[in-house]
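Progress report, Aim 2. The chain analyzed during this reporting quarter is listed below.
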Amino acid sequence: MKTPIINSLNDILENDIISFHMPGHKKGSIFKKLGYENLLENIYKLDTTEIPGTDNLHSPEDAIKKSLERASEAFKSDETYYLVNGSTCGIEAAIMATTNPKDKMILNRDCHQSAINACIIGDINPVYISPNIDKESNNLRGVNYEDVKKVIDNNLDAKVLFLTYPTYFGHVFDLKNICEYAHSKDIVVIIDEAHGAHLGLNDNLPNTALSQGADLVIQSTHKTLPSFTQSSMIHIKGDRIDRNRLSSMLRITESSSPSYLLMASLEIAVDIYVNNGKELMRDLIDNIDEFKIDISKLKNIKIDESEDTTKIFLNTKDLGITGYELEDILRYKYKIQVELSNYYGVLLIATIGNTKEEFNRLKKALIEIDIDNNKNISLKSMTYPMSIPKKVLTPRQAFYSNVKSVKIENSIGEICGEYIIPYPPGVSLISPGEEITKEVIDYVIECKKKGMIVSGVKDNNLEYIQVIEQSETK
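Predicted structure tokens for the chain:
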């Protein structure tokens, strides 16, 4: 059949690829386990639109309203909204609902690119907080309270503080005190909790953002809970958010023909969260603890611990191979797919959809890899760019400027006209309007050679980069 997308998806099913990546339902295995399979068997028949009896996502009064109320109760919010355009639309709507054009917003430098896109759309002026980087793995560890406080004190006219919690790699920070300090300066706190929808299921996991004082939280339900890809939620707590304005912004950033399949999957995720979530999370944490004990006995593969134990980073530095190489070995030899690879290792996302058998297969594979691929040399260090590039233009000014292509090695000192984003996780090393540094270019070129995927650039080969014509910066 001439259906290349369907064919590629069927190949994954036929090859029985084990998922340690998003989405959280793990190829639907959790639906089968918990008895939702019959409901979803003919799901295409449920694909409909706003007709009598189905309600309207942008003006819920009946079924959708009741579903949202249950979700709000489950996640302990004052109000919850379903998102069918992913967390991206929620982040953009949240930022623009709490700022006006030309306003200033403080955000962590390692934010998702959608936050910077919101600055372009809403004409918002970003002020960045330096991230903490683990030098042994180049993994993002979040922000420090003192760093956040300093940036707030230097930008008391900022309207919003936007932070990522937890980080992609499962690290958290002192969010409670940060929220309290931001609120004392009349600053709204928005949290990108894309990777933390599951945190409320166990006391041994980090505290949720809502429980620590966040005003508005965006969660990618599909990442760590069992909903379909692209389905997310926004949660509000307190009275600092203008809900009518947020609803208006969501009508701008979100489809006017919302998918009932995605909404249905969110409702199923909530149902599982309420009825089975805590028990399933206990089982998952037990499986992870057992897995980590066994892997700790390996000679060369190490686990970098994070506060969120469901995020497992396997460090290959002592094994002598890159994370890109380990990802390929796991996928093509052992039929195991990880979430992310970088120079130093691979990231696994474990969810309540993963089984003990899957952990056992992963453990067996890693034991063999630890023996077969040991090169008796450690990887050389590769330093993640720590400095925040100088901002010459706002993201919006840069976006609407004229650009030209130059050789990437000749771009140092120029003003960037596009993003340089290692993907995943979608964190921008340099954004439109910022001065290109040698530190960034050297890092990107070297990582590209090692197998890193870079998005945001017009030239996928990374030989050329778009820069802003100098007349635009005067």
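The longest strand covers residues 79-83. The radius of gyration is 22 Å. These observations will guide the mutagenesis work planned for the next reporting period.
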